[in-house]
């Protein structure tokens, strides 16, 4: 069995240390904000200028002026603050974020990430990803294990335009958790019932 999107989010959350600052990319990572357990004290940052994102708002608390970088409405926690893009990116570039969780199209054995463009298809741009992959202390990629064509997104070498070189620390897919080590993927955990030969990776890409 593979992990659901919610289970993937919970696996990512289990990697966070208490009292951390975290940035969440658009797409799958946004699920994390609404699943943070009460016992975990973290501050979620959004590069459009919010620190203290709590999750999605209740219907009667929706505000068009409270959004994340993906233009989704958000809720905020006690002590939240708002600031302009210059200060927000100063936090990112100054190394003040402990974790950044991004979606991904491809990750390779050197920790290279491609997550912003498929040639020939319309895209909205890279956004803050280029800054985030170099500014945050730990980069976690959260993505499905296979693309729509059934090919694995963990590769020997990324084929799509890169977001960053040698930036990825951990990858969480619907099949498992992987770290980047010795130019390969080390299996940290697999979903129940999943075996290594079902990952679509050659033996040379999996490191002990």
Could you please describe the fold and organization of this structure?
It is a single chain. The protein contains 3 helices and 13 strands; from the N terminus they run αββββαβββαββββββ. The protein is α/β, with parallel strands linked by helices and 208 residues long. The chain has a single domain, classed as 3-Layer(aba) Sandwich (Glutaconate Coenzyme A-transferase), CATH 3.40.1080. It has a 10-stranded mixed sheet with strand order 4-3-2-1-5-8-10-11-12-13, sandwiched between helices. Strands 7-6-9 form a 3-stranded mixed sheet, with no helix packed on it. The longest helix has 9 residues, at 5-13. The chain starts with a helix and ends with a strand.
Describe, in short, the structure shown.
With 208 residues, the protein is of the alpha/beta class. It is built from 3 helices and 13 strands, in the order αββββαβββαββββββ. Strands 4-3-2-1-5-8-10-11-12-13 form a 10-stranded mixed beta sheet, sandwiched between helices. Strands 7-6-9 form a 3-stranded mixed beta sheet, with no helix packed on it.
Question: Considering DSSP H and I runs of 4 or more, what fraction of the residues is helical?
Answer: 10-25%
The value of Rg in angstroms is 17 Å
What do we call the CATH homologous superfamily?
Answer: Glutaconate Coenzyme A-transferase
Oligomer: single chain
Q: Would you list the SSEs in sequence order as H and E?
A: HEEEEHEEEHEEEEEE
Number of helices: 3
CATH class: Alpha Beta
The CATH topology annotation reads as: Glutaconate Coenzyme A-transferase
Which class best fits the helix and strand makeup?
alpha/beta
* Biggest beta sheet summary: 10 strands, mixed
Query: How many structurally independent domains?
Result: 1
Instruction: Compute the separation of the termini in Å.
Output: 23 Å
What is the number of E strands? 13
Beta-strand content estimate: 25-35%
